[in-house]
């Protein structure tokens, strides 16, 4: 496999090119990287959705759909992501590889993506009112519907409550009341600011050469205004919990199964983070099938249907999510706490360590077989500033020792617990 | 093994039916680091009544899914999930209305992992105690699906469309139905449905196809078992059992799902029906259709709106739905559009466009070894070749689409299920 290549193709516009011959399709994304903050999150989130509605050359949904159909069903979707305390909004294109369709389409897909970003349909010099208002409503529907996914909702509420006052508390889509305030004026203003301001990460994976992709990308972004920009603020990493005691939050919703979400600060391990050790630590504790949470809390104690942990290495926090019978709240919290204590005390076998490592290595290596995983991986790399392949990461994981894991776990402190329990009627 | 090539999509497939009746399918994927293996049985949540050796048997809801959970317990006291994970594989399993599948992907140790997969799925081992414990775990899973609007929605609509077909009931069963499950139920159902002639092994990756077949031959029972006959009830004709239902649940905004029964089809005709049906839905209400654009612009639907064919348990149907502040209004507009299309025929230019788009979408699916294997297994159980979709797609005419609409999408045969707060 040829090496991945990243270069600045225009001022603060970086192209990451990942060559791959094995796929029958390709991916191309353009991402605007901005600091996550409450005042702009909703506006930033709505922008790609508005841009997707129409361009100067294809000003209606019909016209866009017709262009995409002619490009053999290529998809271009608005994206909103949160990586640490950065909000990344943009457009993602998925399309057939040129080798399998009767004509070359890559240049046209890249051109249409660029056109959406830079040359939206306007009226009187502003974004079209109909599109701004329509997408404002869709975004507010999307936020209101997060509750339909109880697990995601509980995790989001925990973060909002635990990280109150930190940028990280802001959900990737912004807050409902800020969405409602969006107007043609504010959306247009924000659009004019974000284009010159944001660092731009362009990503491609597929069979086309670097030269071809670069030329098409540069051409499609030629009119992108570029300002001076500024260094993005670093993630605020707190090494200590906010309260003296673990803060507990409980909310009620008419649900049959309670959702428990527990938040931790990774602490000292974030001072000079060893990401491979953190990943293995999380794997041993609750990130793997062979983890302590899965084996003990789910399998042995039958306390829940799922129990897993994940870490945000950018922000330095760990999250445990679990679905439990509301009557088992105390038991589940204490079982989960006990398992973490066991990890910290080194109470895990060589076999547990090895299987967590093997699982992780397999996951990293498999990531190279998925366009989505590759894109997500390299976008994440741009935000830590450490560019390494999944193969490299697998190699680093393979040399993690028990001591590394203990070091990664040593400073972890519980900060907050959130419980979404059933209403009066459903409480057993 | 028999080799079939698909030059237009750059795929080839090796297949063989072993003496014990097992179908082995290998899709070589060069350049992929991981190998994906799926061992599936033609047995799902809706296969509750079956005949074996002349005797009809009824089983409680949730057995197939319960078996899926319990198969991971191995005789030596270990669980297969851990054994596979410890050997660097990423294992999992799922049960749908029409199949149970066990799978893993791994970037190393493929041969050992394949052996583990074949062994743990073919050798049952259940104890009273472990069955009891699983009732607790699955009980929580059932409660979780009861809170999931997507799942409530699907089964809600199936209950409207069908009177008899067990596709109406949740694959996991209910807390009450799984309480009836004993070790005997599990052993019996394993014997009936996990015999090789009722199963398929599908592998996608950079592997030696002959060796995969040989391994299966060596590790699985040599005897050819009788393929069970299933009874999915007597739902005939296009009319739904009931037309409307509204359920109250905690949702951010109302969600709805609607659909109509489609004519029963088997074999290659089922694949063709699904391709034609998907194209019909795309022309009528897909993202390129005037109706979709108009509903979207009026704020009646959002990008979560979907329309697709679904088939399982001997029946197939169209499904469409999403979130909407006024599901009834969306439903009415779609009904009017169906009426119009039935009399004046579909837009042929638009059909050509969506056919072209469907080609590219089909290619994208081939990049996922998981979906290729699941598709091949489902094709094997239903008697069609899942990779022949593109030639089928090319052959679809406006006449086919119009016939589908007239036959299967009459507004009076639609059922509508709504969830609101």
What is this structure's SSE topology?
The complex is a heterodimer of chains A (428) and B (421).
Chain A (H helix, E strand, L loop, with lengths): L4 E6 L2 E7 L5 E11 L2 H14 L9 H10 L4 E9 L2 E11 L9 H13 L3 E2 L2 E2 L1 H16 L5 H13 L13 H5 L3 H14 L1 E8 L3 H11 L26 E6 L5 E8 L9 H13 L4 H9 L3 E9 L4 E8 L4 H16 L5 H18 L3 H14 L5 H9 L3 H9 L2 E9 L7
Parallel strand pairs in A: 2-8, 9-13
Antiparallel strand pairs in A: 1-2, 3-5, 3-8, 4-5, 6-7, 10-12, 10-13, 11-12
Chain B lengths: L1 E5 L4 E7 L5 E6 L6 E7 L7 E4 L2 E4 L4 H8 L9 H7 L2 E7 L4 E7 L3 H13 L5 H19 L2 H13 L13 H5 L3 H11 L5 E7 L3 H11 L9 E3 L12 E5 L6 E8 L4 H19 L4 H8 L8 E7 L2 E9 L3 H18 L3 H18 L3 H14 L6 H7 L2 H11 L6 E6 L1
Parallel strand pairs in B: 3-9, 11-15
Antiparallel strand pairs in B: 1-2, 2-3, 4-8, 4-9, 5-6, 5-10, 7-8, 12-14, 12-15, 13-14
Helix pairs in contact in B: 1-7, 3-8, 9-12, 9-15, 11-15, 12-14
> How is the CATH topology of the largest domain in chain A named?
Cytochrome Bc1 Complex, Chain A, domain 1
Provide the β-strand percentage band of chain B. 15-25%
Provide the helix percentage of chain A: 40-55%
Name the CATH homologous superfamily of the largest domain in chain B. Answer: Metalloenzyme, LuxS/M16 peptidase-like
Structural class of chain A: alpha+beta
Number of domains of chain B: 2
Helix-strand topology string of chain B: EEEEEEHHEEHHHHHEHEEEHHEEHHHHHE
Q: Can you walk through the features of this model?
A:
The complex is a heterodimer of chains A (428) and B (421). Chain A has 428 residues and is an alpha+beta fold. Chain A folds into two domains: 5-220, Metalloenzyme, LuxS/M16 peptidase-like (Cytochrome Bc1 Complex, Chain A, domain 1), CATH 3.30.830.10; 247-421, 2-Layer Sandwich (Cytochrome Bc1 Complex, Chain A, domain 1), CATH 3.30.830.10. Chain A contains 15 helices and 13 strands. In chain A, the strands form three sheets. A six-stranded mixed beta sheet of chain A has the order 1-2-8-3-5-4, with helices on both faces. A five-stranded mixed beta sheet of chain A has the order 9-13-10-12-11, sandwiched between helices. The longest helix of chain A has 18 residues, at 350-367. The radius of gyration of chain A is 23 Å and the shape is globular. The mean pLDDT of chain A is 94. Chain B is built from 15 helices and 15 strands. Chain B is globular. Chain B has two domains: 2-231, Cytochrome Bc1 Complex, Chain A, domain 1; 244-420, 2-Layer Sandwich (Cytochrome Bc1 Complex, Chain A, domain 1), CATH 3.30.830.10. In chain B, 43% of the residues lie in helices and 22% in strands. Chain B has helices at 63-70, 80-86, 110-122, 128-146, 149-161, 175-179, 183-193, 209-219, 267-285, 290-297, 327-344, 348-365, 369-382, 389-395, 398-408; strands spanning 2-6, 11-17, 23-28, 35-41, 49-52, 55-58, 89-95, 100-106, 199-205, 229-231, 244-248, 255-262, 306-312, 315-323, 415-420. The mean pLDDT of chain B is 95. Chain B has 421 residues and is α+β, with helices and mostly antiparallel strands. The chains are: A alpha+beta (428), B alpha+beta (421).
